[in-house]
Each structure stands twice: as structure tokens, then as C-alpha cells.
Amino acid sequence: MYRPAPFDVPDPAPLLERLARVGPAHLVTWGSEGFESSLVPLLVRPGPGPLGRLVGHLARANPQWRSFGPGVPALATFRGPDAYISPSSYPTKARDPRVVPTWNYIVLEARGTVVAHDDEAWVDEVVRALTQRHEAGRPDPWSVDDAPADYLAGMRRAIVGVELVITGLEAKRKLSQNRPADVDGVIAALAGGSPAEQAVAQAMAGDRPAGPVGPEPQLS
């Protein structure tokens, strides 16, 4: 991942925990037909290495899992909020028109090796943990045991477990840190926008730059 110094996240592990709690990842692997990808919710688990593991499941009918095995490389990408940034929101534009649009975003990549778990007990534990994670805090949380046992058995047979052992983490928070004089203007412009724009404004407000860090990189 291209990570200019102003946007780099030196310790991405806490960000992985936060992003995995709220949204799925794009899981990309190489198979017999070339690159394959699936959007899949994943849980962060400890070990066996210092960066931990990601676990989830895919539909059995999804051919992607059939290429998984020891040593097979994989990439899981988690996205945080993102928003288009117009030069019109830059206060400095009034004195220097040399500005261009850009995009602010938060993104994390977990690299590692991936295996499939065609084991009913393994899959059942992951399904229950994922359900508890994403039902937590709801006024009437659904439980796996709310569904009939025979129906659940059939559904479990229709999925296969996925485990990615993480060997590398990289993350980027591109939130106008390179334009400290314009941060407040961008926050104000986004704060009244869409939910995604408001989320970026909130992230920027909690990540204000300490001072100038040089000219803006033109590549994202």
C-alpha cells in the first residue's frame, strides 16, 4: 500500500480491531481462474503469530475457498469512512488557487496465508461469535438458537470456514493531515453532508495535525 508519511499508521492493530467490528473485508486470493474476491465479515483472533488471525466463512457454492491451503497468500482489505474533498472547502484557496480535488479515507490491509475449515464444529463457533458481535447492542438481539436446529444444520452444511493467519498489516488514514491550514474548512464542509461525509469529518476532528508536514502528495 502506498503510504506517504503524513498518512501512515505506525501501529495498525487497534485500527484492525475497530474496522473488523463494524464492517466486512474484501478477501482477495489467487485461484485457478486468477484473482478471486469475496466480501466477508471477519473476526480478529489471537495467534499463532504476533499479528493474530482473521476468521469467517464463505458459501460452499463460492469456488474461491477451494483454492485455499497451507501457504496460499491472501489479502483482506477493510475500509473505514471515505469522502470526496472539494478544493472549495479549502480556506487557503482564496490566496493560492493551486489546489485540486482529492479523497479522504481510512483503509487497512491484512496480508497472510489462508486455509479453509470444512468442519461443522469450527464453523458453528465462528457463526455464533460473528452473530454475537453484530447483534450486540441491538434492542432485540437475534440468537443463533432462535432458529430451528434442523434448519441451522442445513445452513451450516452450506458454508465453509475461512482462516487467514496475518503476516503483515498496513494502514492509511488520509484525512488532510498534509493541509493543516485547511482542516477546519474541510470538517465544516463535510459536517453537514451525507452520513459517510459526517463520519470522515468526525475522524478528522479526532486526528488533527500537529503542524505543517510539507506539500500535499498528489497520488492517493
Descriptive account of the structure:
The structure is a single chain. The protein is α+β, with helices and mostly antiparallel strands and 220 residues long. It has one domain: Electron Transport, Fmn-binding Protein, Chain A (Pnp Oxidase, Chain A, Roll). Helices cover 25% and strands 31% of the residues. A 7-stranded antiparallel beta sheet has the order 2-1-5-6-7-4-3. The termini are close together. The model is unreliable at 209-220 (pLDDT under 50).
Strand segment tally: 7
CATH architecture identity:
Roll
Number of domains: 1
* Helix residue percentage: 25-40%
Average pLDDT rating: 93
Number of helices: 5
Strand content: 25-35%
Strand and helix order: HEEEEEEHHEHH
Strand order of the largest sheet: 2-1-5-6-7-4-3
CATH homologous superfamily - what is it?
Electron Transport, Fmn-binding Protein, Chain A
CATH class: Mainly Beta
CATH topology: Pnp Oxidase, Chain A
Largest sheet: 7 strands, antiparallel
Q: Which structural category fits the helices and strands? A: alpha+beta
Radius of gyration based on Cα positions: 21 Å
